[in-house]
Amino acid sequence: MSRRTRRKQAAVAFLQAYDLEGLLAWSRTVSNPTAVLLSLVFDAEELLRWRAIEALGRVVGEAAPKAPESARDLIRRVLWLMNDESGGLLWHGPEVIAEILVNAPDLQGEYARLLPSFLREEPFERGSAWALARLAGVWPEQWRGRVGDILPALTDPDPFLRAHAAVALA
Question: pTM for this structure?
Answer without folding.
Answer: 0.94
